[in-house]
Amino acid sequence: MEKYCINGGKPLKGSVTISGAKNAVVAILPAVVLSEGKCRIENIPNIADVTTVLDILSSLGATIRRVNRNTVDIDPTTIYTHVVPHDLARHMRASYYFLGSLLGRFGKARVPMPGGCDFGVRPIDLHLKGFTALGAVNSPLENAMIGVEADRLVGNSIYLDTVSVGATVNIILAAVRARGVTIIENAAKEPHIVDLANFLNSMGADIRGAGTDVVKIHGVEHLDGTTYSIIPDQIEAGTYMAMAVATHGDILVKNVIPKHLESITSKLEEIGATIEEFDEAVRVSCPGPFKHCNIKTMPHPGFPTDMQPQAAVLLALAEGTSILTEGVWDNRFRYVDELRRMGAQVQVDGKVAVFQGVPHLTGAPVKAVDLRAGAAMVIAALAAEGYTEIEEIRHIERGYENIIEKLRGVGADIRRVRIPDSMLRQA
Ligand code: UD1
């Protein structure tokens, strides 16, 4: 086990290059199952979740060759089974995308109940409702395995009661080779939905409307191999933007799509940041104090829930009272206790957190309770006076490529240190 050791209080300055989007790649790699030819996927972030999805593909029988750190060749024609093994799937949420893709390819899929970050109840009823509408039958949970099966998938109209990224992805995956037309209404509009559709269309699929709330999928018989490059990670970019603000620094965040960052940019400007947009970069600085601000997370194009903990650090340091409302998940404030250990003054009532800004945070031993909460701890530690140790960093490394190297590149004093076994036994 390892931890991060951070000496805070230094303004971060320089440039950082954003990696491929985690939430796009974890949908696109399972989608490769549907192809009848070899695929080359570029701009893949080198993170633990990608390793897990590639391991799942391998376990299904796909032939995988790492071309370099960020490019893989995958031959899915050698896949021989529709069953995803337990030990791999339980590490991440997106393992359930193999339900849609294996169902689309084999007419059946068995996938363990997924793992991933704990934000309270994370149902999959809408995914199953979608599969059923396409003609599949769900078998009862057996040994914590979800099973779906169909003689023939046939297109249908599906209305999602709640905007769900996962259900939108899974229904697209199942529908892309179904007979006839599938229409998903009240679909999620996140950039990674568009990226998935672009990837599938590059293989010969016929998907229109991705990025709007109505996605129309004309089923096709065959999908060919393709070469495709993953979009930059909106949330990784937002995290480094928040780091620039939190440390009163000045960072050029490169390899981004500024349009994807609009909701983040707008709130950071309200807090007091100066943001300059270029074609594929944003420059973020914040010399002055932080102004109080209210934020509510919403599905895209609203402020992303996956930036909520990172934004919380800024509100903890903003003058006056700020209100942060979580509009997507039931229980996404578990990290607040850790922020309090660093001096934040915050009250949580259900899905609302009220911050009374403090002039500074102070270094403390804390832990990452989940991926983005872990990123928030890194931001808090970089902004804080003094020394912070962050434990349970495995959550952070599920989603941030080369975080230590990238942060050192902008002047952060951060180290990854092994926790001796003797210390673990005491804990
Ligand atoms: C994805 C992201 C996650 C992000 C979330 C919201 C991936 C791998 N993960 O998660 O980082 O926080 O979108 O932007 O892309 N819901 C139901 N029934 C369902 C499915 C979802 O009620 O069948 C509800 C959930 O409880 C939640 C809301 O819909 O309240 C949104 O969830 P969803 O968009 O599905 O999140 P994920 O796809 O799991």
Your description of this structure?
The model has no long low-confidence stretch (mean pLDDT 95). The chain contains 15 helices and 23 strands. It is α+β, with helices and mostly antiparallel strands and 427 residues long. Uridine-diphosphate-N-acetylglucosamine binds next to helix 1, helix 5 and helix 6.
Key phrases:
427 residues, alpha+beta, four-stranded mixed β-sheet, 15 helices, binds uridine-diphosphate-N-acetylglucosamine
Mean pLDDT: 95
- Biggest β-sheet description: 4 strands, mixed
Number of E-state strands: 23
**Alpha-carbon distance between the termini?**
12 Å
Unreliable stretches covering 5 or more consecutive residues = none
Using the CA coordinates, give the radius of gyration.
22 Å
Rough outline:
globular
Q: Helix proportion of residues, in percent?
A: 25-40%
Instruction: Quote the beta fraction.
Output: 25-35%
In this entry the ligands are:
uridine-diphosphate-N-acetylglucosamine
- Order of strands across the widest beta sheet? 21-22-1-23
Q: Helical segment tally?
A: 15
Secondary structure class reads alpha+beta
